[in-house]
Amino acid sequence: MALPPGTLPEIEPVSRESTAAVIARQLRDAIMTGALPPGTQLGETELASRFQVSRGPLREAMQHLVSEGLLRSERHRGLFVIDLEPGDVYDIYAARSAIERAAMLRALRSGDRDRIADLLERTVAEMATAASEDDPNALSTADLKFHEALINASGSKRLVRMARTLLIETRMCLTALQSTYQRVEERVEEHTKLIQALRDGDEETALALLEAHMEDAVQRLAPGTSLRGGHAPPVPGNA
Predict the structure, then answer these.
(1) Does 3.30.470.20 match the CATH number of domain 86-221?
(2) Which of 50, 75, 93, 107 has the smallest count of CB within 10 Å of its CB?
(3) Coiled-coil annotation: which residues (predicted)?
(4) What are phi and psi of 73, to 5 degrees?
């Protein structure tokens, strides 16, 4: 149904990304990659100088990241990059498991398995290259692209939307996770097996591998925690 003429007289066409959106994107990337580590306090004066902007768009950008859950506000102290406690890690991977299980099922039943598998193989090739070049940052970026590609391939706008912030938090986890592997090739192998199960249309194996992949990450990042056993530490603020 079309809006009646004159209903939204103040709205003008958006021609380019706003300054606040550009700042939010750059801060988000810095949080994801660990350039702004967990617990870092963000000072308005320093950031405004670094970005060469006024405090207005900077505050707008930071409030957007607060709403995304990537920054936390402490009364009388300011804004800080969130710390991912064991309860947060459990919560992130439990939510991802539900979303990616649904995405995998849709991919398996789509009749388009080979195309999706080919797409995922390209991200695994990037992982392999990063591993051979001993580039942990590129490896984690390619790892995240694999899971993002799987969710996008589901064709579900809602799964994609639900996964958006989870994948940003996952990138923070991957920065910590990369130090727990004795052989970086393990990460490549895990994803390769998932692709083969998808290509074969082996639903039971694909879902079991995906569950094991999530469980392994949780146990590496939060020892003593298990998605399978329901051993979930409390999430700060919800205890």
Answers:
(1) no
(2) 75
(3) 174-201
(4) -105, 130
Overall CATH class of domain 19-81: mainly alpha
C-alpha distances (whole Å) from 115 to each of 106, 158, 206 are 13, 22, 16
CA atoms of 61 and 51, how far apart (whole Å): 12
Element holding 81 (H helix, E strand): strand 78-81
Walk across the sheet containing 71-74 and list its strands. 41-42, 78-81, 71-74
Per-domain residue ranges of the chain? 19-81, 86-221
Helix (H, G, I), strand (E, B) or coil at 33: helix
Helix (H, G, I), strand (E, B) or coil at 141: helix
Q: Is the pLDDT of residue 4 over 80?
A: no
